[in-house]
Structures are given as C-alpha cells and as structure tokens.
Amino acid sequence: MTATAVKPLWIGDLKVDPPILQAPMAGFTNSAFRQIVRGFGGAGLLATEMVNAKGFVWLDEQEACHPDRLWGVADEPRPLAVQIWDNDPETLAKVGARLAHEYRVSVVDINFGCPVRQVTEKAHSGSYLLRTPDRMGAIIERVVEACHPTPVTAKTRLGCSRDRINIIEVAQVVEDAGAAALTVHGRTAADMFRGSADWDLIAQIKPHLKRIPLIGNGDLDSAEKVVQAFERYGVDGVMIARASLNKPWLFAQAAAALRGDPVPPDPTLAEERELMLHHFDLVIERFGEPKAVVLMRKYACCYAQGRPGAREFRKQVARIETAAAFQQVVADTFPRDRAPAAPALTPAS
C-alpha cells in the first residue's frame, strides 16, 4: 500500500496526529478498552463513552460520585475527548465547563448523531436535534462559550432519514456556531446501522466548510478503507467505530498505511486469546468480578467475530457467571489458529 499525503488534524489548537480518531461508543469505550487501544497505538485521539449531561448534573447536585463513564479520565493520558448529550444548552454548558476546566479534557464533543430511541424519541436529543438546526447552533454556541479555550466539536449524521438529508445546512450551522470540528457518520438516523455509509455525501460537505476540519465516520474496517477515505473523499480526519471492537489494533494498522509503512498483520488467534484475557483483567480491576463478567460477554463476542468456531464460543460465553468460568470457556472454545502465522501486532506493555 502506498502512502497518501495526510497532514495532522487540528481541532482548535489541538494537534491530532495521526488524524485517526477512536469513536465514542456507549457500553464499550470505557477506560479498559481505551487502555487496550492505547497499547497498540495509532489513534490520534481517544474518546470516552457518551455522557448524559442531565445525569451528570443530577449526580453533582446529590454530591455523589461523578458518572461511571468518566472513571479514570482525570489521570488518563491526553489527548482525550469526552462526548456529552442532552438538548438543553445550559445543562450541556454546565457539564462542558466541568469537563474543560476541572477534568481538563482535550475536546468536548456534542452528540447530535445517536439514533437510539431512548436518546431520540424519549429525550429529544442526539439525532433528534437534526430536525432543528437552529437549536443545534444555540447549543454549540453556549457550550463553546462555557468551555473556552477547550475546543468543542460536534458529531452528527446525514439527516433524520433518506428523504430528509440536511447535512449541508447542519454543517454550516455547526461551523457558524463556533465548533472546532465536525464529524459526520455517513448514515441517517433512520438507517441506524443498516446498509452502507454514504461517503459520497460526506465528501460533498467539505466545500461548504470554510475554517473547520471534516472528519468522516462509517464502515472503516480496514487500513485500506482508511487510506481511501483520505484519497477519494477529501476528509481531514477519520473516526473508527464498531470495527475497532473486534480489532483494537486497527488504528495502528491504519496509521502504518497512511505513513506508507508495511501494514502489520492481525494478531494470531492465540495472541488474541491472551489479549482478551488481559482485557478481562483490566475490566475486573475497574468494575469487580460480577459486573466485569457481564461486560466481558459482549467484548468476548466482538473478539471472536468472523473467526472459525465463533458461534459456539458466543453460545458458551453468554452463559458465564464467574471469572473462572470465563477463563475456562476461553481455554476450551475460543477459535484457534489452523496453522502457524508470521509475528503479528501486539500491544506495548
């Protein structure tokens, strides 16, 4: 794979190099997952799970602990972004200010793209706000003011549905309101995660942005696709989401491809098995055994995705209730290599 001329991404005064971002994903991108990604390298900017701003304020008023999704953030290496969601400018500004000035995060991102019913129809947040770009602008303006000088970004989708695509208008509103960058997922809210991301539509946004970078997101599941995103669609950065859940080393592979270096092969299944057990240890350390076992069921299924024997492994791992049971299921049923492989990518110790 040949190198493509990709410059570092600037989000305000923050340099993101390489311009490859790890997407915030509810239920997945906790501190343990981020530690795994950071160990492999290649991600220029990592992100937490998205944080419910209203819930944060409630916890603060009750003098309770900060939201669980912010565990480890205060002491974690930078750069690091935290994504927040709600529909009230003042609530989002209050939380954004705390993140910027107390937690000292690198970026405060506002979610305008989540299509999940609990966020959209029940809370009138996330991608629901694509119906009212003016409201989005008011939110961004208030959060930018509260977070200064920490950059504020927005993540959105193409529109509410295929017959209501308004991303050009939204992009101009986001820029005019003072956001430092825009990330666009190439599907509509109605699409959820079905079908394919429309990168042609993402590319059409770029000429309408005068000063802020455009970050593309959707279906980036290989180093080749990351290179193509820059070469074909003219984005300033990319955000990798679901594909990283079963390939947390994808960021390092993509970064190598952008440099023109040989792309490291995937770890062997034996190495993946050891990585998964290490991941489990990190989750136990943070959450304790009972909760860690429940959380690790979904991570384990991600690791096995697309591998021979994955169905039986998923079936067995869904039943585990103890750490010992998890380790036994991994030993007995996690897919195995069919033949010796070349040395592969492993995370830094």
Structure description:
It catalyses: a 5,6-dihydrouridine in tRNA + NADP(+) = a uridine in tRNA + NADPH + H(+); a 5,6-dihydrouridine in tRNA + NAD(+) = a uridine in tRNA + NADH + H(+). This is tRNA-dihydrouridine synthase. The chain is α/β, with parallel strands linked by helices. It has two domains: 251 residues, TIM Barrel (Alpha-Beta Barrel), CATH 3.20.20; 65 residues, Putative flavin oxidoreducatase, domain 2 (Non-ribosomal Peptide Synthetase Peptidyl Carrier Protein, Chain A, Orthogonal Bundle). It is built from 14 helices and eleven strands. Helix 1 runs antiparallel to helix 11, helix 2 crosses helix 3 and helix 3 runs parallel beside helix 5. The chain starts with 8 loop residues before the first strand and ends in a 16-residue tail after the last helix.
Q: What's the total helix number?
A: 14
- Rg, rounded, reads 20 Å
Major sheet summary line? 9 strands, parallel
CATH architecture of the largest domain: Alpha-Beta Barrel
CATH homologous superfamily title of the largest domain:
Aldolase class I
Q: How many separate domains?
A: 2
The coarse overall form would be: globular
Beta-strand share of residues: 5-15%
Number of strands: 11
The top-level CATH class of the largest domain is Alpha Beta
| Mean pLDDT over the residues | 92
